[in-house]
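I have been asked to look over a protein record a colleague put together. The record follows directly below this note.
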Amino acid sequence: MSAGWLIVVAAMWGATNPFIKQGSSGIENVKEDGKVRQFLMELKFLICNWKYLIPFLVNQSGSVLYYITLASAELSLAVPITNSLTFLFTILSGWFLGDKIHHWETYLGMLLVLAGVTLCVSDKL
């Protein structure tokens, strides 16, 4: 059952990555004198921006769920499932937001990731 929760974690991490990227656009326009003031104004920009903050909080909730799931999951299963499927969910959610998949190698990579995760999970069952 922990494999299911790990897939949920990967979905939470991967699906939010493009939204976080999109929500943080414009931070490069924040210009202040001094490194500390620059940091604080960038932090204010992110905290006050709901398009960044909501996906970030969902992403961090995934991290909490991952930590909780690690208590009952096998580490040799947890790391490959979450890391590889996060990549897959990032590509799919980016595609949903309008990013183009330019190369057939991306599709092949997605299939290989799915095959690898399936092999890892089936070996541990």
Remarks:
- The chain is about 80% helix and 0% strand.
